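Action item from last week, closing it out:
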Amino acid sequence: MKLLWILVVAPMVFASTARGLWMELPGSGEKCLSESLHSKVIVIADYYSFYSGVSDFNATGFPPISVEVFSPYGNKLHHQENATHGEFAFTTTEPGNYMACFRAGSNSHPDKNVTVGIEWRNGVMAEDWGSVAKKEKTEGLELELQKLEASVYAIHGKLLNMVNREWEMRRESEFTNAIMAWCSFASFGVCILGSLLQICYLKRYFRKKKMI
């Protein structure tokens, strides 16, 4: 059975994030980074691999890794085998958890720990603001105001997505509660019907035996 390690990034109010982190990969199985995103969000990520505790990379080289990125419905957005570094970028099409999974390659040294460095950016942090500034000829305070405006829209979209998800979860909960209530009434009715049938059968049995 394939071992799966998952590192979950909890949903945050701020829809625009930029983070860098290191993950040590297990000898077998994979480790995944997951983040909840709403639709129409730009995601850009860079990754690279190295051996932990090694200072001379010329002697050991860089370990190969396998990278896979999945949408909330399991669609594969990126797949790379035997890579030592690379990047992926996509625009989300549906809300949900987007997952990037990393696995140590078969050619890596078994006695050395493989670590993956990841720089994950989305939303406003994934925008190329240098190109925006050149195109619109903005700089300084005006450019910062544009960034803040884009952040406000991103946060507003994130809040709307959270409200929609809460409404869907509440609707599913109410539907489940209604089904459980009907099942309880049905089971109670079956018990009563069984008891009545048993009483009728016993009455006929005792009358046939002339005991009552």
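Closing note: Residues 1-16 have pLDDT under 50 and may be disordered.
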